[in-house]
Amino acid sequence: MAGRMVEFPSSGKATQGYLATPAAGNGPGVLVIQEWWGLVGHIKSVCDRFAVAGFSALAPDLYHGQTASEPDAAGKLFMALNIAQAEKDLSGAAKCLAGFSCTTRLGAVGFCMGGQLALFAGCTNPSIGAVVNFYGIHPNVKPDYSRLAGPMLGLFAEKDQFVNPSAARDLDVEIKAAGKQSEIHIYPGVDHAFFNDERADVYNKAAAGDAWKRTLAHFHAHLK
To answer: What domains lie within the chain, and their CATH numbers?
Structure first.
């Protein structure tokens, strides 16, 4: 890992996150938001990839030290997430990340639960100027799309049983109906979590590679 763990204030308490920055200095800041497993190695490696690509990336630990390695435990952490506290943690992370960003506008990208929270952050924090939502879902997270501060890129999977193509298209319509910018891509023949290269059961190299290129292009275009 190229990055390091850092602490930042969140509603009067110290919260941790994993920070990776470019070797040459600060880059455009991107919040990287975890799947339901927690702040695990895969999410840290995504931050490292952003740093190699020239971005400063911070992944806040929304489970405050807890992680899961099997679905039942992950599901319990997922449903127990305190959304009000998560909003405060994301706000604190954004303020921390701003100190390592060469742009005033930040990006937010998340996966599964984190995809929905990235969209939520884009609707609750005006410093978020662009969102990338990888197959985002959380039943207790209800973003107000009228407050979305920047364009959303949504990346979804045709075989996803959690966020199926119809739900992805509905999201696109809802965001546009709120007068905001949205673009979605539905990858044929792949499943939920296709970007996670530590999950051989669902990882798809071609789709993940294309999604990564689109993610970088989205942030390059909108974080200035």
So the answer is: 4-222 (3.40.50.1820)
